[in-house]
Amino acid sequence: MSPSSHLPNFLGIGVPRAGTTWLHELLSNHPEVFVPHLRKEVHFFDHYFDKGPEWYSRFFEAVASERAIGEITPQYMFREPTLDRIAEFPRIDRFIVMVRHPVDRTYSHYGLKVRNNHYTDSFDDFCSRNPDIVAMSRYSSPLTRFAERFGRDSLLVLVQEEVTRDPDRAKVELARHLGIDPDAFAVPDGKVNRSFIPKNRRLYSAAMRAVHVLNRSDNEWLVRFAKKLGVKRLLARGKRLEPLAPEAFCRLLDRFEGEVERVEAFLGRPIPAWRGREADMRAKASAPVERQVEGRDVTSSPEG
After folding, report:
1. Chunked in runs of 10, what are the mean pLDDT values of the chain (304 residues)?
2. In terms of CATH, what superfamily is 3-195+241-286?
3. In angstroms, what CA-CA distances link 267 with 132, 140, 152, 154?
């Protein structure tokens, strides 16, 4: 087998907290697809490019007769150097992007920080202090950059809310894009990579830092061994993250003014799931609130 066959021909390039773990599991169970088993997010084109193609190829050494060979690192879409670096690998000619409503994706990223990094401040504070993470919910500009560089047809953009509602349609679109059999998919059961608040937040945060260090030092086998022992499952026991309040949703939505329209323009179609979500949350945020004042029911606005 030639060395080039140990390198990918497709990439999942975005976006974080929009279903890329689900996508990785879906593709990993297809007989005509190879994705790395050592590490889900390889980060070659952003963090480890200096290690060279030989280091990258080790994640694909087990490739046999699969037609679609790739990896999913959802930060690729937002990091400028990746465009030129990916272009140095002409075998890579297809890209997959999963997007989610900008506000919900940002809140899910907040949940990730609460879970993995012992973050305790409010969501509003999180958005103010992490503009780079909020920027990851502005998809239209990086999508346009990739389309201009590699061609619009090279990009398959899946909307997470639509995939959740109709996974069979997503399978057909993926199969067409990757040139594989749509009937050979096995859709993963249930949700994966949920946001939650660990019972022991400090211990869980320390464990996630250890995972990061082990991955950077190419000791993924220790991470896999710990997972088999159920260490992550044991540390993960805790409560679910509270749903995002309508008022907080609308405050952040105002910061994304025009972004949904730009994504719809890129796709060439509306996204009803996003529009419906916005209408529902705006209605809830503006609904009167009933409260007790001196024994009487009083109706007021949320600001009142």
Report:
1. 72 96 94 92 96 95 96 96 96 98 97 86 95 97 97 98 96 98 80 53 55 54 48 56 95 97 98 98 86 41 36
2. P-loop containing nucleotide triphosphate hydrolases (3.40.50.300)
3. 24, 10, 10, 13
